[in-house]
Write a structure and sequence with these properties.
Elements: E1 2-22, E2 25-39, E3 44-49, H1 62-77, E4 81-82, H2 88-93, H3 100-118, H4 122-126, E5 132-134, E6 136-139, H5 145-158, E7 162-166, H6 173-183, E8 189-192, H7 202-207, E9 216-217, H8 225-234, E10 239-241, H9 248-257, E11 262-265, H10 273-286, E12 290-292, H11 299-309, H12 323-326, E13 332-333, E14 343-345, E15 356-357, H13 359-365, E16 366-373
Parallel strand pairs: 6-7, 7-8, 8-9, 9-10, 10-11, 11-12
Antiparallel strand pairs: 1-2, 1-4, 1-16, 2-3, 5-14, 13-15
Helix pairs in contact: 1-3, 5-6, 9-10
Bound molecules: 2-succinylbenzoate and magnesium ion.
């Protein structure tokens, strides 16, 4: 039985080591929203609402998550009795549209709490089977092709198993050509457009087939399945959907319409772990590979991503770079690290998410706090 009595919301400010540019905007200082839930026995679980500062990836932001959790999500969870964390997502979806990242932040904190209650790792509670996760890097849009080549080359040397290059019109063909040329035919490359193209860019997108990319992620609009379906028929390169997959039903739609051949699962985007597991299971049964995306998370959100990516059908490297890629210092101990083979270790011998939140550091970085209590 899961009975949450208290929920604490915090906003912590964490400057990124370097700005991260995608086709729709640039992030520099992260405003990270942490959620801590506590049950009647005093055990706690941590979550992170992964929305960006601006509504350029999805409609949610740090501020909308704060509002949604305080006003509508927390009141539905606090003081209620749930059989287990599997029951939470349904309670949050009833007559409550959207706000997936706000819902997920709380739902995932409840899963983390349950893992600690059962004294098992979050990975194993979710059904994870892996001991290691292969890591991919996501490289933001650079000023010129040579700067991108230098970054991609360095990533390969560090051991990254997949190199994702952010693209947009005007920073695509020439950039990818330079990287492929410099890194050679065997380098595991992919591109992510974050919705930057339209069907009228077909000629440009077809040229991407030349580069032997593992996939092209979300070339067209975030809510457009049909045009992705038309595009996939014209491309040899597999289309991977990110922004478009907000639920199990959208994953079913992608498969039915053949809008893509791979799914990037971000648990925040789909409303949490229950939904992520359902999408994972569907894709596994339909022969669709999945991998775990990232949202420039702190060590807390990263822990959740590592746990999820340990499920068996996460067969492609995930965007779960080590803490040092993003931060001078993370807010968890130990920090997340990557071995020379480009893998992170799944902490299966430790309860819950497997890392401890550095509370002193979090207190220092906190700019806003709210405690919500139930019965
Ligand atoms: O599209 O995957 C994306 C970051 C912010 C918003 C969207 C995306 C990303 C990334 C970062 O690619 C991946 C990471 O966290 O390392
Ligand atoms: Mg993406």
């Amino acid at each position: 039985m899961l009975h949450i009595q208290r929920l604490e919301l915090r906003e912590v400010r964490m400057p990124l080591k370097e700005p991260f540019q995608i086709s729709s905007g640039t992030q520099t200082d992260r405003r990270i929203l942490l959620i801590q839930v506590r049950d009647a026995d005093g055990l706690t679980g941590w979550g992170e609402a992964v929305a960006a500062e601006q509504p350029n990836y999805s409609s949610e932001t740090t501020d909308t998550c704060w509002l949604a959790i305080g006003s509508w999500v927390a009141p539905r969870v606090l003081g209620q009795s749930f059989q287990g964390p599997e029951q939470i997502a349904a309670a949050l979806d009833r007559d409550f549209r959207g706000h997936n990242m706000a819902k997920a932040g709380v739902e995932m904190a409840c899963w983390e709490l349950e893992a600690r209650r059962q004294d098992v790792s979050l990975s194993r509670l979710l059904g994870g089977t892996r001991e290691y996760i292969e890591v991919g890097i996501s490289i933001g849009i650079q000023d010129c092709p040579s700067q991108l080549v230098a970054k991609a080359r360095q990533a390969l040397e560090q051991g990254y198993r997949k190199i994702k290059i952010k693209i947009k019109p005007g920073a695509d063909i020439e950039y990818l050509e330079a990287v492929r040329e410099s890194l050679g035919d065997d380098a595991p490359l992919m591109a992510d457009a974050n919705n930057a193209y339209t069907p009228s860019d077909l000629d440009c997108l077809k040229q991407l087939d030349r580069f032997g990319l593992i996939m092209i992620e979300q070339p067209l609009a975030w809510d457009d399945m049909r045009r992705h379906s038309c595009l996939q028929k014209e491309l040899r390169t597999p289309v991977c959907l990110d922004e478009s997959i907000t639920s199990l039903e959208r994953a079913e739609d992608m498969i039915a319409l053949q809008s893509g051949r791979i799914i990037n699962i971000k648990p925040g985007r789909v409303g949490g772990f229950s939904s992520s597991k359902a999408i994972h299971d569907l894709c596994q049964s339909r022969g669709i590979p999945v991998w775990c995306g990232g949202m420039l998370e702190s060590g807390v959100g990263r822990a959740h991503n590592v746990a999820l990516a340990s499920l068996p059908n996460f067969t492609l490297p995930g965007d779960v770079s080590p803490s040092s890629r993003y931060w001078e210092r993370d807010i968890v101990t130990p920090e997340w690290s990557m071995d020379p083979q480009g893998r992170v270790t799944v902490p299966i011998d430790r309860p819950g998410m497997g890392v401890q939140v550095d509370l002193d550091r979090v207190d220092n970085l906190t700019v806003k706090r709210q405690v919500i209590s139930g019965d």
